[in-house]
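Note to self: the last two entries modelled the partners one at a time, which told us nothing about the interface. This time every component goes in together.
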Amino acid sequence: MAETAPAPVLRLEIPARPSYVSMVRLVVGTAAKARRALVPERVEDLTLALSEACTNAIEAHGAAGTGDDLVTVEVEEADDRLIVTIVDRGTGFDPMELPPHPPVEHPERLNYERGLGIPIIRRLVDEVTFASSRRGTTVRMVLLCSPAPETALDIDLDDLSDLEAAWDEE
Amino acid sequence: MDLGLEVDDSRGKVTVLTVEGEVDIATAPKLREKLVELAAGGATRVVVDLEKVEFLDSTGLGVLIGGMKRLRSTDGDLTLVCTQPRILKVFEITGLNRAFVIHDSVDQAAG
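The predicted structure of the combined assembly is written out below.
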């Protein structure tokens, strides 16, 4: 079966400033819920991964020393996936050049107060690609839509008295 | 959204810092300032209560790690209170649940 081309759902442009990240989480999280593409737990994965990507995008602009730049966040959906793309125009970075973190038990691990964002993104989404150049970075995250959760209530069929009482009141 | 920070130092040697709201790149500096202030004021055992935190990302983790290192350098410690699965998940996926002592309640942490 041929895959359906992704259709646009939402496009946001925000100033590259820290105070806008919470709004992106709220808007994109709400959109993902409204589209019913993801189960609630995966919406939380999405908002956390998105927060990490937007944080990196804003920090890239900070490093560039620019003032009024914009970060773009796009959401698209296809049959079985949600695609979120974050584009900045900052100085860029090479995700392959990030030093590996020491093992958790190692005392030196505590020197890594930063740089946790990309490992978190990799852990939370199904696919992620980073394309970086001197003109900016594009992060594309794909979350596969899980099958709908079991929604049937666990009703005791031998004791329907509560339901019957409601019927009697009618 | 603003970050709520409340200090309770009525428990003797333990200072409890209750955090409320979202901890991210916008609000984490405020949490860092408060932890630095507590450490500078002589606090050694600090319990950070995360039960009212709605969101925490790696920026917040970084501040908590920084606070823990600072307090441990003066023979103190920073421990956490957290039972919310979505917040605990951030610690679990980074492996930092093994670096922090995480309690179920403030009473347990302050005991």
